[in-house]
């Protein structure tokens, strides 16, 4: 009733007019009650006439008619008039109705006057918070002036610590450095590496945000951050752009390290970094020339390889410690760390990775001020993992949070011992209001892995102290660190600078939270500038388009089908035409295991092979393999054998002979040797030992024709399961205990007419000879090498079947067919050295 009356008074100019509308309502009601048969038209005229009379009356007099002494027109006593005037905000009619119901000004309704006295205020609700909810800290002021913040810029500077020039401590000295004590869960007194006032201001600013409504706070944070619109760009998440940001700022020392040769894979590890944004960026930047190893906790934050839209996840292999793909991925478990170390070294020729990325963290909601303490063991284990798998001169980048305690600072000091250069860096892609920063290390120089082993020992100590109230408080004595003035000063500058930046950012968010109209105006500009500077495409993230094999092949090659690529003059070797190989230095060869065919991959297991009989692409079902999309290879499907006789095991494998396209990279115009190197790298990158259900993919072992005897030394006679009692010719696969049944030898001419290769006896080196111009040069001419199409169309095939004598112990052979001895003699007679 009160609200309705109040609303009525808002629609009118004064209480008198409201009373008139009240009397009008009574008049209309009396007509309804006394004459129910009155027509609507007549009723309308009566009201209009009464309004006209009322208007004339009010126009004739400038003042209201006097009220009778002591009473209203309707008989109300004078005391009621006083009470009605006290009701102030309500119309006379509303006041009368309320008084009849027992209302008294200044008192509540109800028998005992228990009703509320104050008017219900209009809702001041924000966002999705509950009706009437008030945030305690919303009206508090952050005593930090954020308006003088540094202008947004895409240019960033890196400050390195001074280099550690001492010796790496031995194991005994390191053991003496560990200090334990009572577990501590506060940080406000850690002022040895930061000014006290700066630390207290930071903690105060953080505390103000504890009670702010999350959704609205995140909106304010997004509006206030100049770099917010960078987001994930074409990648899975923001983490990928952080890595792109830091890779540029550190002169691409991660994706293009010094000393990495063109024929070498870039090995890297991604630790505690699910869902994998860091790795997606690296794989995108390096295309197929990289191999990644992942180690993260299994669960909701595991690697999401199917969401790698910008890169090929087939080049990345997660590992979870003990149990491999079935492990837990808990990095704080010492056995998991050791197992991951073994796995990485086994798959990098025992050299380790070129760099390690670590991005571990977990929710500390409500305890943000002690995040550094809560995540200390996680930080230590990430450091330990990196130092156990890095190769010499390798690099390391790891996310950290506040670095105020001697424990955290000591960990960074240990990195300074183990690396040539160390820096604390906060990229612009890291939101300025959080405590996040990165420790970046270059030039790993601890070949004995003393520091890494020391960290592993500390982790074991921490695991043993759980639930005891004890903790490791120092990993490097403060006395040792304090003697290094440059190190202490660097840390103070870094901590105080980042704390000041964070306080300003928090104050800015608070201002944007209170005023939803505020918006950072440079967001679009910063996105455009940063993406251009970091060479990242400025487009929306999108899944790769779906297509069929024929369409993809045409898109990649411009050809309708592969017949023009492989439909060539394949000559069969016989004694009559053996002279076709007299230019021995022009040929290389490989042992065939079956008829070769082209395959095209649409990503993962969607691999198709060209069926020349049906003249169409068919799904490859004989082998199970995951091959990066936009790849075209020439392959053989070969049965590999292990053991001999009845216990022999057989598995189907894919042997790669040559290549046209590797993950979108066209290699068809490169020379045969380069293509073979690329294929060897590619095969190594997609090999995943932790997935035994996948078929083996191998690069064919290529031999020079002048070294054909090496081919014959690979041959052996074995009893093949299901092949009867007579041993059969088998070709051993180098570096393994496996073999396969050879079908012959294929010779590939890798040079282009009219060029040929010969050997100079005087200089004892090969040279290039043009048979048309009779020109001889020692440097390879630009038009010497044959591309894939030419190599594929001019091959010489030497089929063996079961009747060509290759091995001395072969019982069956035909004398009229070219034998191994005959071709060896022929090659030797045409070889100058």
Describe what you observe in this structure:
By secondary structure, the protein is α+β, with helices and mostly antiparallel strands. The chain folds into three domains: 1-50; 171-533, Rossmann fold (3-Layer(aba) Sandwich), CATH 3.40.50.12760; 550-750 and 785-829, DNA ligase/mRNA capping enzyme (D-amino Acid Aminotransferase, Chain A, domain 1). The protein is built from 24 helices and 27 strands. Strands 12, 13, 14, 15, 16, 17, 18, 20, 21 and 22 form a ten-stranded mixed sheet that branches. It has a seven-stranded mixed sheet with strand order 4-3-2-5-6-8-7, sandwiched between helices. A five-stranded mixed sheet has the order 10-27-23-11-19, with no helix packed on it. A hairpin with a 4-residue loop joins strand 13 (607-611) and strand 14 (616-619). Helix 8 packs across helix 17 and helix 9 crosses helix 10 (277-286). The longest helix is centred in the middle third of the chain and has 30 residues, at 485-514. The protein is elongated and about 130 Å long. The protein starts with a helix and ends with a helix.
Main attributes?
3 domains, 833 residues, alpha+beta, single chain, Rossmann fold, disordered N terminus, 27 strands, seven-stranded mixed beta sheet, D-amino Acid Aminotransferase, Chain A, domain 1
Give the SSE layout.
Blueprint: H1 2-11, H2 15-34, H3 40-60, H4 78-86, H5 92-100, H6 171-177, E1 179-182, H7 196-208, H8 214-224, H9 238-249, E2 266-271, H10 277-286, E3 290-295, E4 316-318, H11 334-346, E5 353-358, H12 371-374, H13 376-389, E6 390-400, H14 406-418, E7 419-425, E8 437-444, H15 450-464, E9 470-474, H16 478-482, H17 485-514, H18 523-533, H19 549-557, H20 563-566, E10 571-572, E11 587-592, E12 597-601, E13 607-611, E14 616-619, E15 631-642, E16 649-662, E17 665-666, H21 672-686, E18 697-699, E19 703-704, H22 709-713, E20 715-718, E21 728-732, E22 738-740, E23 744-749, E24 755-760, E25 765-770, E26 775-777, H23 788-793, E27 796-799, H24 820-829
Parallel strand pairs: 2-3, 2-5, 3-4, 5-6, 10-27, 16-18
Antiparallel strand pairs: 1-9, 6-8, 7-8, 11-19, 11-23, 12-13, 12-15, 13-14, 15-16, 15-22, 16-17, 20-21, 21-22, 23-27, 24-25, 25-26
């Amino acid at each position: 009733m009160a609200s309705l009356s109040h609303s009525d008074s808002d629609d009118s100019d004064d209480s008198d007019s409201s009373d008139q509308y009240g009397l009008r309502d009574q008049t209309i009601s009396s007509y309804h009650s006394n004459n129910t048969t009155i027509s609507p038209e007549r009723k309308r005229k009566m009201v209009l006439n009464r309004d006209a009379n009322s208007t004339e009356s009010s126009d004739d007099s400038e003042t209201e008619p006097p009220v009778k002494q002591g009473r209203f027109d309707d008989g109300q006593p004078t005391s009621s008039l006083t009470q009605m005037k006290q009701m102030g905000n309500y119309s006379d009619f509303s006041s009368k109705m309320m008084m009849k119901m027992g209302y008294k000004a200044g008192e509540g309704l109800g028998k005992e006057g228990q009703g509320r006295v104050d008017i219900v205020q209009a809702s001041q609700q924000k966002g999705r918070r509950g009706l009437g909810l008030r945030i305690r800290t919303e009206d508090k002021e952050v005593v930090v002036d954020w308006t003088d913040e540094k202008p947004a810029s895409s240019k960033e500077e890196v400050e390195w610590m001074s280099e550690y020039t001492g010796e790496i401590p031995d194991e005994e000295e390191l053991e003496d450095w560990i200090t334990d004590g009572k577990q501590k869960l506060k940080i406000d007194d850690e002022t040895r590496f930061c000014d006290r006032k700066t630390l207290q201001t930071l903690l105060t600013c953080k505390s103000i945000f504890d009670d702010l409504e999350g959704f609205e706070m995140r909106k304010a944070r997004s509006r206030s951050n100049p770099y917010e619109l960078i987001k994930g760009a074409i990648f899975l998440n923001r983490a990928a752009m952080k890595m792109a940001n830091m890779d540029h700022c550190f002169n691409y020392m991660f994706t293009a390290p010094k000393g990495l040769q063109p024929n070498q894979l870039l090995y890297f590890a991604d630790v505690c970094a699910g869902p994998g944004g860091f790795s997606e960026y690296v794989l995108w930047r390096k295309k197929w020339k990289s191999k990644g190893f992942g180690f993260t906790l299994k669960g909701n934050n595991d690697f999401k390889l199917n969401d790698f839209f910008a890169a090929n996840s087939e080049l990345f292999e997660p590992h979870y410690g003990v149990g491999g793909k079935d492990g837990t991925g808990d990095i704080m478990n010492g056995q998991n760390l050791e197992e991951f170390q073994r796995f990485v070294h086994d798959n990098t020729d025992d050299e380790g990775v070129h760099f390690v990325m670590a991005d571990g963290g977990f929710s500390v909601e409500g305890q943000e001020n002690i995040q550094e303490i809560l995540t200390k063991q996680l930080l230590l284990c990430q450091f330990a993992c990196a130092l156990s798998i890095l190769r010499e001169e390798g690099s390391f980048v790891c996310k950290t949070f506040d670095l105020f305690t001697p424990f955290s600072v000591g960990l960074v000091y240990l990195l300074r011992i183990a690396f040539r250069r160390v820096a604390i860096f906060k990229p612009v892609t890291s939101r300025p209001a959080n405590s996040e920063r990165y420790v970046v290390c270059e030039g790993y120089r601890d070949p004995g892995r003393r520091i890494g082993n020391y960290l592993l020992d500390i982790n074991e100590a921490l695991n043993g102290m759980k639930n005891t109230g004890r903790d490791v408080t120092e990993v490097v004595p403060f006395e040792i660190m304090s003697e290094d003035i440059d190190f202490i000063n660097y840390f103070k500058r870094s901590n105080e600078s980042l704390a000041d930046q964070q306080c300003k950012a928090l104050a800015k968010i608070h201002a944007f939270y209170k005023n939803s109209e505020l918006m950072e105006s440079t967001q679009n500009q910063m996105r455009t500038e940063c993406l251009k500077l970091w060479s990242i495409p400025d487009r929306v993230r999108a899944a790769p388009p779906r297509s069929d094999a024929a369409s993809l092949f045409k898109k990649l090659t411009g050809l309708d089908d592969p017949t023009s690529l492989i439909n060539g003059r394949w000559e069969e070797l016989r004694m009559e035409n053996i002279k076709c190989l007299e230019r021995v230095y022009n040929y290389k060869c490989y042992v065939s295991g079956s008829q070769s065919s082209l395959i095209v991959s649409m990503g993962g297991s969607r691999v198709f092979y060209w069926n020349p009989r049906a003249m169409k692409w068919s799904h490859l079902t004989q082998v199970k393999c995951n091959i990066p999309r936009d790849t075209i290879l020439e392959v053989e499907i070969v049965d590999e054998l292990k053991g001999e006789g009845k216990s022999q095991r057989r598995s189907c494998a894919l042997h790669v002979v040559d290549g046209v396209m590797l993950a979108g990279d066209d290699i068809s115009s490169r020379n045969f040797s380069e293509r073979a190197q690329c294929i060897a790298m590619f095969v190594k990158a997609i090999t995943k030992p932790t997935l035994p259900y996948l078929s083996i993919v191998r690069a064919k072992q290529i031999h020079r024709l002048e070294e054909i005897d090496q081919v014959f030394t690979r041959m052996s006679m074995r009893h093949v399961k299901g092949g009867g009692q007579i041993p059969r010719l088998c070709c051993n696969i180098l570096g393994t205990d496996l073999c396969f049944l050879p079908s012959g030898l294929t010779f590939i001419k890798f040079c282009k007419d009219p060029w040929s290769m010969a050997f100079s006896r005087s200089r004892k080196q090969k040279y290039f000879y043009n048979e048309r111009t009779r020109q001889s040069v020692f440097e390879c001419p630009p038009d010497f090498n044959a591309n894939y199409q030419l190599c594929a169309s001019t091959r010489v095939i030497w089929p063996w079947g079961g009747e060509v004598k290759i091995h001395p112990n072969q019982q069956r052979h035909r004398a009229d067919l070219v034998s191994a001895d005959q071709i060896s003699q022929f090659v030797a007679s045409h070889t100058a050295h």
